[in-house]
Design goal:
Shape: globular
Strand content: 15-25%
Order of helices and strands: HHEHEEHEEHHHHH
Helix content: 25-40%
Distance between the termini: 45 Å
Length: about 260
């Protein structure tokens, strides 16, 4: 009897996932259905599906394996972007919980976040939202003003989540996606150094990494717990061998955020 119940529950769970996938495919194929679906979630889709809009990526979507391959996005153009008045955080719960913390941004008048501006259509935005759990998930699509290297300022969609008070630690695989994506798109050297200074969860357990060293690193402001940003070369060197064994994986399960990035 117990085995029968387990099989029934597994079947129902599988059916529910299949229904969600079918609904998402159906919605993303029709701009009219998309607008009704968003209105049902108290959101508004404006303009036409073919309109060009900007999306600001600061997390794993900077990497082609995540944005172009996994999410199958085809941007019409891209630029390096700077978002003022926000700070990079790692204060979300990833999967598995406690072993990774995806990127997030939080308002901070004295800070800035660098990332990649992608020019995509509104219809592609709907597909991207679905892949990030929007609408109905944790992320909140937020329009922000982002500047490019030529001084132009554009309105771009970014995902912002209601994260925790303290930062966690991203997985090594995840932070490598940020580092390699940022380098591939030519983000400024100080930002690359900041990403390089993030101690991943796997390396945090290394005996060379202590709370005292974390506090001494000081590359980022304390946020209620010890900083995830370190500047000590010895810490990075102690993790180098581990990092060399890891490679970015396009199937990495980036947690759908609160409001999103």
């Amino acid at each position: 009897m117990k085995g029968e119940s387990v099989r029934v529950m597994a079947f129902l769970a599988h059916s529910a996932r299949a229904a969600r996938r079918f609904r998402r495919r159906l919605v993303t194929r029709s701009w009219t259905l998309s607008r009704w679906y968003y209105r049902w979630h108290s959101l508004e889709l404006r303009g036409r599906g073919s309109d060009l809009v900007w999306y600001f990526a600061y997390g794993s979507n900077m990497h082609d394996s995540a944005f172009r391959e996994r999410r199958r996005m085809r941007p019409l153009e891209w630029r390096v972007g700077r978002l003022g008045g926000y700070r990079l955080r790692f204060n979300l719960d990833g999967i598995p919980k406690g072993r990774t913390a995806p990127a997030n941004i939080c308002a901070d008048a004295g800070a800035e976040v660098w990332g990649v501006l992608y020019g995509i259509t509104r219809k592609q935005i709907v597909r991207l939202n679905m892949s990030e759990g929007v609408p109905g998930g944790m992320y909140r699509p937020t329009w922000v003003s982002v500047g490019d290297l030529d001084g132009n300022v554009v309105d771009a969609l970014a995902y912002v989540a209601s994260g925790g008070a303290a930062d966690g630690r991203p997985s090594l695989r995840y932070i490598r996606l940020l580092r390699e994506g940022a380098r591939a798109h030519g983000l400024p050297a100080p930002w690359l150094e900041l990403l390089d200074s993030v101690v991943p969860a796997e390396c945090a357990a290394h005996p060379d990494v202590t709370p005292q060293k974390a506090r001494a690193g000081g590359s980022a402001r304390q946020t209620g717990g010890e900083s995830v940003f370190l500047s000590e070369i010895r810490v990075r060197e102690s993790c180098r061998e581990l990092a060399d064994r890891e490679r970015p994986n396009s199937s990495y399960n980036h947690t759908p955020d609160l409001c999103e990035k």
